[in-house]
Amino acid sequence: MSTKTDALIHGLSLDLAPVVPGFVARRIALGLGLGGLGSVIVMLAWLGPRPDLAQAMLTPMFWMKVGYAAATGLMLALVLARLARPAARPGVLAAVAAAPFALVSLMAAARMAQAAPDAYRSLLMGHSSMICPWRILLVGLPILIGAVWAVRGLAPTRLVLSGLVAGGCAGALGAAVYAIACDETSAPFLAIWYTAGMALVAALGALGGSRLLRWR
Amino acid sequence: MDEIEPRLRALMLAGLAGEAEPYRRLLDQLSGLLRAYYGRRCPPGVDAEDLVQETLIAVHTRRATYDAGQPFTAWAYAIARYKLIDALRRGRAHLRAPVEAAEALFVAPGADAAMAGRDLERVMADLPARTRSLIRDVKLTGLSTREAAEKYGMTESAVKVAVHRGLKALGARYGGSDVDED
Q1: With 60 as the cut, is the pLDDT of residue A1 above it?
Q2: Does residue A167 sit within a domain?
Q3: What is the pLDDT of residues A104-144, one digit of tens each?
Q4: Dihedral sign for Cα atoms in the order B122, B125, B129, B135
Q5: Which of A3, A4, A5, A210 to mutate to test binding with chain B, by most B CBs within 10 Å of its CB?
Q6: CA–CA separation, A140 vs B158, rounded Å?
Q7: Would the pTM count as exceeding 0.80?
Q8: Across the interface, which of B23, B71, B79 has its CB nearest the CB of A16?
Q9: Which of A18, A85, A155 sits opposite B17 (nearest CB)?
Q10: How far is A155 from chain B (nearest CA, A)?
């Protein structure tokens, strides 16, 4: 027994505001929302929307790019909300978050199967494959900052995994923002290079996780 | 463990709703459990009581991350283990916090001691009856060598030798670390 600990317990029980339900979800939504705002500003100021945005929005390919990235990002946000709690497990949600990628990969394979061999190169590489992942990294960075802010204010206990998921989520949402600036139109390009961009941000999150997400 | 979970969970839910008295009782019971948990695992150079207090503060400031649909014991154990890992890292000790079941924090007090007593009886069953009762009297009940010598009508040195040989036999049979005689 310790009188100091008893005094602490007494003090803590006096400082007891009722907890609002949905606190975890709201904090993560706030972090991702503010980060997303920053991401849109970076995209607009640096790259600008594609000039033919109005026409592009009438094509399924535009929505496939936005849809793939946004769906992956939102599912990873749900996984992140779990990992921000002690003792929580990602569970089947983590597998579900890979479903959009599986779908896009299938569509990419189907597209490649019916293409003539001399079109392979342009389908796979487009004209921006070497810069696309790096742009997604930079556009996703503000969202990663927002995600890290949100999660370290909660109580993650698996820091590297939480960092990986925070990065994957930020990368995917950043890719959805980047899709407004990007004029690539092939499913194979999307499956490879958008995914590579998301993976870059995820790797950054995992590398920084144990330091950035540590809380006291 | 089976009764601790519903009891602590009920106190936690009342605390989350803002009721100070159940919440104070929760922290009070947790502090006892944490003291036992860290007492056995605290890295050298770290005060276990500091860890207890840090963990109580973390439980308090992060209480919004408790999901009423999850076991409270698992939640509290994850925070306790996180704090232990944090202390190990801070001390740059090349030690790792073992992965255990949540029972590591929530065993009933005294369960370890009761278990040890039962094991000891089983182990000593192989010794001669006289040696067994000598060891029990001198090492467990706390009789002095002289009192034991009078009780069994032996000389003091004979008592010492018998106890020593008995412990040595146990040590040889069950291996591992040397038997501590003092």
Answers
A1: no
A2: yes
A3: 999 999 999 999 999 999 999 999 999 999 999 999 999 99
A4: negative
A5: A5
A6: 80
A7: no
A8: B23
A9: A18
A10: 6
**How much is the ipTM here?**
0.89
Closest CA to A66 of A180, A168, A144: A180
Residue of A nearest to B55 (CA): A216
Domains annotated on chain B, with CATH: 4-120 (1.10.1740.10), 126-174 (1.10.10)
Residue A207 has which token pair?
A: 């590398």
Range of A46's domain? 23-84+100-212
Closest-CA distance, B91 to chain A, in angstroms, reads: 15
Domain count, chain A: 1
Q: What pLDDT was estimated at residue B165?
A: 82
Q: CB of B170 within 8 A of CB of B127?
A: yes
Joined tokens for residue B13: 């839910």
B contacts of A20 (beta carbons < 8 Å): 64
Residue B124's alpha-carbon distances to A129, B114, B130, B134, in angstroms, are: 74, 16, 11, 11
Tens of pLDDT, residues A171-182: 999 999 999 999
In 3D space, the residue among B63, B34, B10, B7 whose CA is nearest the CA of residue A16 turns out to be B63
